[in-house]
Amino acid sequence: MKKTLMVAALTGVFATAAHAQSSVTLYGLIDAGITYTNNQHGHSNWQETTGSVNGSRFGLRGAEDLGGGLKAIFTLENGFGINDGTLKQGSRLFGRQAFVGLASDQYGAVTLGRQYDSMVDYVAPLTLTGTQYGGTQFAHPFDNDNLNNSFRINNSVKYTSANYAGFKFGALYGFSNQANGFANNRAYSAGASYSFAGFNFAAAYLQLNSNGSLASNTAAFNSGGAVTGDNTFFAQRQQTWGAGLNYTFGPATAGLVYSQTNLSGLSGIGAGASGQTAGVGGFGGSSAHFQNFEANARYALTPAVSIAGSYTYTRASLAGTRPHWNQFNLQTAYALSKRTDVYLQGEYQQVNENAIVNADINGLAASGNNKQVAVTAGLRHRF
Fold first, then answer.
1. How far apart are CA 214 and CA 344, in angstroms?
2. Are 277 and 286 in contact (CB under 8 A)?
3. Where would one find the signal peptide in this protein (predicted)?
4. Domains identified in the chain and CATH numbers
5. Which of 62, 137, 353, 376 is the most exposed place for a label (fewest CB within 10 A)?
């Protein structure tokens, strides 16, 4: 009888130990607000918005300790609109992230699935559009550099290094998954960052091949390549690179970011992050070029109150014209708790008169002229 009780007790101990070596976490964020826009297709508008700063999502994140500093990891992350409950990212179940892989404390991680590119991983955290201090509506025009994460990379294999005294690097390759079309609708990306004594530096590169819906690439577009259904540009090739730095001193952080996107075989501009922006077409397979210059700063007035702002100047060569944008952004947020905050933010965008496109703050419908103003009061909850 004593032996039976001892075996049962030991079995319970080992089961508890085995259970402690693996974990699955449910997490998420909900962002809802009321937005006033002075001009959407020629009319002012009051609307309930979702994800004006951070896209609403929930996800599952798990890890299993395999011993020797090695573990199996996975993430499944869904994006949705809190205002109507619909799925985002092209109605995918796990459209924000979906990957599985192995991670080593010493050598880094290798993961496979639908994942972020290196511009998002390394450069975006130095901007305001890639953080909680600005997000969706602070994006550069059309989110042309993907720093607001308008699209992810399907069929991707990704390496992320360990942290070597503040230095991190990584690379990603997204397969076309197309027979006899290895290079058609594929993607690759690489980046690195370094942090030291309050300074943060980062640089990254992203290339997409045949990620558009030109007639010659329709089959690749529909076959489930590296970027399908949520891409920003319909083009034969997109090359994007960027670099930035910021410095934190006490409660303040200030930074500068530069990014550039070159397009060849451009046939149109897609819907972007929110799916609300009207598509722009008629470029006839031309080339295009965007340059973005962002200066940003944020300051913690108290542990509960923050203020952040940025200015972005964008110039482009687009269908034989040279539009340029000026956008001013400002946000203040008040933390009701560690997980819940309220925010108020505003944006003003102006594109030069007689440009080929109108003003178009990311995540909202385009203006009917060259200027647009938006103000949002919102609530965010994390779990």
1. 41
2. no
3. 1-20
4. 40-382 (2.40.160.10)
5. 353
- Which tokens go with 205? 């590169």
Nearest to 153 by CA among 73, 84, 276, 238: 238
- For residues 357 and 282, what is the distance between their CA atoms, to the nearest angstrom? 12
d(CA 261, CA 241): 7
* Phi–psi pair at 277, nearest 5 degrees: -65, 130
38 to 41, 272, 323, 372: CA distances (angstroms): 10, 21, 22, 6
Q: How far is 204 from 125, CA to CA, in rounded Å?
A: 12
Structure tokens at 358: 């109108």
Q: pTM to 2 decimals? A: 0.89
Distance CA 346, CA 100 (A): 38
End-to-end CA distance of the chain: 47
- Positive/negative CA dihedral, 229, 231, 232, 237: negative
Cα dihedral value 365, 367, 372, 374, nearest 10: -30
In the numeric block, the tokens 């992350």 are attached to 77
Strand partners, 295: 256, 311
Provide the CB-side half-sphere exposure for 82 (13 A, CA): 21
Q: Which amino acid is at 111?
A: T
How many CA atoms, within 13 angstroms, populate the side-chain half-sphere of residue 26?
0
**Could you write out the DSSP letters of every residue in 169-220?**
EEEEEE----TT-TTTTEEEEEEEEEEETTEEEEEEEEEEES-S--GGGHHH
What is the chain's Cα-based Rg? 22
Q: How many CB atoms lie within 10 A of CB 1?
A: 5
All residue ranges of the chain with pLDDT < 70 are 1-20, 211-223, 271-282
What are the tokens at 204? Answer: 């990254």
pLDDT digits (tens, 9 = 90+) for 207-256: 999 755 544 444 444 457 899 878 788 889 999 999 999 999 999 999 99
User: Within its chain, how far is the Cα of 87 from the centroid?
Assistant: 17
- Which residue is associated with the tokens 């006033």? 36
